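User: Predict the structure for this protein chain, please.
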Amino acid sequence: MLSQKKLQKIAKNIVNVNLGVREKDVTIITAGPKSLKFAEALAFECAMKGAQPSIQYGSDELALKIYKKINPKFLKNWPKLSDVLTKIADVEIHLDESNPFLEKQLPQKKIEIRRKIIEPIKRKRDIRLKKKTMRLALVGFPTEETAKALKTSFNKLNKIFWNTMDIDYKKLYQYNNLVIRKLRNAKKIRIIGEKTNLEFSIKNRKFINGCGIIAKEKFGYLNLPEGEVFIAPVENSANGEIYFDLPCMGHYGKQVEGVWFKFKKGRVVDYRIEKGQKDFEDIIKNVSGDKDRIAEFGIGTNPKAKITGGLIIVDEKVRGTIHIAIGDNKLYGGKNDATIHWDFFKDMRKNSVVKADGRIVIKNGLLVGFK
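Assistant: Here is the predicted structure, written as structure tokens:
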């Protein structure tokens, strides 16, 4: 764990640089037992700006107790408080603290009941985020349990995570713009590599600069640590195959590794998973909507990010990797409507290329023409 002094410095950066919190902003901060001190540091920095912070507390332990025993009919009740907060909050900061061992036990059928009920609230939030009348940051928070699930040491995971956070966001914005210029006006993307030959259309879609500075972002959503350029492909355009050689700990602690997808007209029509197929299927069979359709193509751009072994919020930002997501993408300018958005990662630093309209723009993980 970082010292309180360092956490306070990072909190100040999130409030001032990343989110640009202002006087009178109603700011909701969600936290768990291990991230509570960090939430307090964020609340303090918000208060110093004249904002109005409030901390909401929850835990995976409590969620598991509730979901195991709750009568499903209660999950269908309209969540009034969430609805009100979505209407009045100017800023939301969600600290992504998790215990994968507890999350894996959550009953997915009950989870999906709740996901469907809160879907209209999520869409209201998305509209506000697109208009930037609300700013939201999902902030990772490494835990001992996450490190254990990833089969790595907490010290290593902790160091990687906070180093990834500690970057010059203005330089990241400039580098991302360079990547976007390489891809501007492209109509087709092709990815070639190990067990991979996938092509899809991005015609009339715009790349998004995930630079970590809300004032420069296309919409009011941040995913910290930041560092990616991404786009919503045309939903029915993906054809071919892709192999994701990097492990991924996705929704509710579910872990997969060695994932191979075959796409036809945008949908996953076949798949093979070397590790975690049962976990994958437990999620997929219980979610709804366009859950098997291509949703996102992303390029990692954070110079300090390193592979953690599956922590999405870091691994998708590693420079030299790409990621493809399936599921929902409405916030990113797409048309998929689903109760899931799941990213999968590929290391492009060996025998791999990304082409835009036939031109090689990334070769072996490196942006062509960039020194």
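The mean pLDDT is 94.
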